[in-house]
Design goal:
Elements: E1 2-3, E2 6-7, H1 15-18, H2 31-57, H3 63-82, H4 87-112, H5 116-136, H6 144-168, H7 175-178, H8 182-209, H9 218-246
Helix pairs in contact: 2-4, 2-9, 3-4, 4-9, 5-8, 5-9, 6-8, 8-9
């Protein structure tokens, strides 16, 4: 996805959301606005995840929370991609729904591997701030070639996941996605690395449109960051789980 020659792996930052955003009279997107909205949505994710976690360890069946959460989050993402005027409420719903999914997913893993989710949270936060530091200091420069490589690899990764999901209905399984073999671990490492690199693309894109896009586009940026951060957390947790099984 690109805009005026700029690309990002995150669907929240596609051309669709940013066209017609140069109205001079309108309030502009600010960094503080994106930060405050992102923090608020992350708190929503944490609250709903904690609630699902609590239910799990009280003996309540949470399958509907985890399954329903991922389905609702997916629907919200699809609707956001076609109805941008609904982004604010849908981003809030997305945050709560993804929290239900993360809470259940994390609780299942915590039951078998105590404290692994907490380690994943710490690694995700550290990765986020390291990527932000690398971007701000320009140690890693987001060039056109860099964007192309990251976008291509991420597209392949999601294609593999989608294909695996569809083939599962026919009894065909991609073992390297789910088992703890060295191939599976290597694949998970690659995915986690590119999930981290996609943060750089998102920082770069927002940096170019702070002060230019309309104020309400802060919600698109917030949704985009949520998508990337949650994806990174899930991949880190899956990798830690595989390593725990292996060792």
């Amino acid at each position: 996805m690109s805009l005026f020659g700029l690309n990002t792996s995150n669907p929240a930052f596609s051309n669709y959301f940013w066209k017609h955003s140069n109205t001079k009279k309108a309030k502009k997107m600010t960094l503080s606005g994106v930060i405050l909205k992102s923090i608020f949505c992350l708190l929503l994710v944490t609250a709903s995840a904690a609630y699902t976690w609590k239910l799990f360890f009280e003996g309540v069946t949470i399958q509907w929370y985890t399954t329903g959460g991922i389905i609702v989050a997916l629907v919200c993402s699809i609707v956001i991609s076609v109805r941008r005027e609904w982004t604010m409420p849908l981003t809030l719903i997305y945050a709560v729904a993804k929290g239900f999914f993360i809470g259940g997913f994390s609780a299942y893993i915590h039951q078998r591997f105590p404290y692994l989710p907490f380690q994943a949270v710490i690694i995700t936060l550290l990765t986020f701030f390291v990527m932000l530091l690398l971007y701000m200091t320009r140690i890693i420069k987001v060039t056109k070639k860099f964007r192309s490589v990251v976008i291509t690899v991420i597209s392949v990764i999601f294609l593999v996941y989608i294909t695996s999901f569809i083939l599962n209905f026919f009894g065909i399984h991609f073992s390297f996605l789910w088992d703890s073999s060295w191939i599976a671990i290597a694949f998970n490492v690659v995915v986690a690395i590119f999930a981290s690199l996609s943060l750089l693309l998102d920082f770069d894109f927002m940096d170019r449109y702070i002060g230019r896009a309309k104020k309400h586009y802060e919600w698109f940026a917030t949704w985009g960051l949520l998508v990337t951060i949650i994806w990174l957390y899930v991949e880190v947790l899956r990798l830690l789980k595989k390593l725990a099984i292996r060792f």
